[in-house]
Write a structure and sequence with these properties.
single chain, 309 residues, Beta-Lactamase, five-stranded antiparallel beta sheet, 10 strands, 22% strand
C-alpha cells in the first residue's frame, strides 16, 4: 500500500457516511456509492464494531479533535474482509447547522511491519544478551556458577537472609587427592570427575541453594535458612553424594568446611560478612583435610574460630 494514501470520510451524527473521497475507494475497496449512507462501522473489524458504536457516540458528545499518531493500535476492514492497520484523525465539523465528523485514515501497514520487525529484533537481542550473560556466569566445564557469579548470588542471598532475619551457611568443598587423579589417569579423567561431582552436588543441593565451582577442584555451596545443625547435615549429604559417584577410575571423596552466619551478623556490611564466611569455611576445610579428609568440619568445632557475635 502507498503510505501517502489518505482516505477521507464525512460521518454524520447518526454514524452514517455522507461523503468519501477517491482514496477511500482505493483504501477500502468499495465504490463511493457503496459507502454513502452506510454506517461507518462497516469499515471497522467485526470484533471491534460493537465497542466502536459507543466510542463514536462518546466522541460526538465531547466534540473535540483527535490527532493522528495516538498510542492505541487501530485496524480497518476492507470490502473483502481483510484488515489493515491504520492511523486515524478525527475532527468535528459544523456544516449548515449540522454536526459531522471528518475521518481521515492513513494506511500504516509498512510502518507497522517495520515496527514489528524492530520489536522482534530487540527481543532477539535481549534474549541473546541474557544468554551471553548466563554463559559469562557459568563455569565452562561443569556448567555451575563460576567464582565471580557466586559472589554476586551469595551477596544477594545474604541480603535476603538479613531481610528475613534468617541464618545462612557456607560450605567449602575440596576433592581429596584430586591431583593424583590427573597424574594417574590424565586430565580427561580429571575433567570427567569434576563434571560428575558438579552434577552430584547440584542434584543433592536444594533448589534454592547456590552451587558454584570456586577453584580447580574446589566447590562452594551457599544455603539460606540453615542453622548449625542443618548446615552440617546439608554438608554431610553432599559428602555422601560425592562418595557415591560411580563410573570414575578411582573413588572420589571430598572434605567440607562449614560455617554458619547467624541473624545477628547481618548488621554488618554484606561484603564483609561474605569475606568472613569464606575465610571461616576455608579454615574449616583445611581442618577437615588435616583430620584425615573425607569428612565435614564446622567452624564451631574449631577452638581457634572467631566468634560471629
Amino acid at each position: 500500500m502507498n503510505p501517502r494514501l489518505i482516505a477521507q470520510l464525512l460521518v454524520d451524527q447518526a454514524g452514517r457516511i455522507t461523503l468519501a473521497n477517491a482514496q477511500a475507494e482505493t483504501l477500502f475497496g468499495y465504490d463511493r456509492s457503496e459507502l454513502i449512507d452506510q454506517p461507518v462501522e462497516m469499515l471497522v473489524p467485526s470484533r471491534f464494531a460493537a465497542r466502536h458504536v459507543g466510542h463514536r457516540a462518546g466522541f460526538m458528545a465531547e466534540s473535540h479533535s483527535r490527532p493522528m499518531g495516538a498510542a492505541v493500535e487501530l485496524f480497518a476492514r476492507r470490502k473483502d474482509g481483510s484488515e489493515l492497520p491504520v492511523d486515524i484523525m478525527l475532527s468535528p465539523m459544523l456544516i449548515a447547522g449540522r454536526h459531522f465528523t471528518l475521518c481521515v485514515a492513513r494506511d500504516i501497514t509498512e510502518r507497522k511491519a517495520a515496527a514489528d520487525k524492530l520489536r522482534q529484533q530487540t527481543a532477539e537481542l535481549q534474549k541473546l544478551h541474557a544468554e551471553l550473560k548466563e554463559l559469562a556466569n557459568r563455569d565452562s566445564l561443569t556448567g555451575l556458577l563460576n567464582r565471580r557469579a557466586f559472589h554476586e548470588h551469595a551477596a544477594q542471598m545474604l541480603r535476603t537472609a538479613r531481610r528475613r532475619k534468617e541464618s545462612a551457611a557456607l560450605l567449602m568443598i575440596d576433592l581429596d587427592h584430586f591431583k593424583e587423579v590427573n597424574d594417574r589417569f590424565g586430565h580427561a579423567e580429571g575433567d570427567h570427575v569434576l563434571k560428575m561431582v558438579a552434577a552430584a552436588l547440584k542434584a543433592t543441593a536444594r533448589g534454592n541453594d547456590i552451587v558454584a565451582r570456586y577453584g580447580d577442584e574446589e566447590f562452594v555451596v551457599a544455603v539460606l535458612g540453615a542453622s548449625d545443625a542443618e548446615s552440617i547435615a546439608a554438608a554431610e549429604r553432599l559428602r555422601l553424594a560425592t562418595a557415591a559417584i560411580k563410573n570414575t577410575k578411582s573413588t572420589i571423596t571430598a572434605s567440607i568446611g562449614v560455617t554458619t552466619c547467624t541473624p545477628q551478623v547481618h548488621k554488618r556490611d554484606t561484603s564483609l560478612i561474605l569475606e568472613t564466611l569464606l575465610a571461616q569455611a576455608d579454615r574449616t576445610l583445611y581442618a577437615a583435610k588435616a583430620n584425615g579428609r573425607n569428612q565435614v568440619c564446622h567452624v564451631n568445632s574449631l577452638a581457634q574460630a572467631d566468634s560471629f557475635q
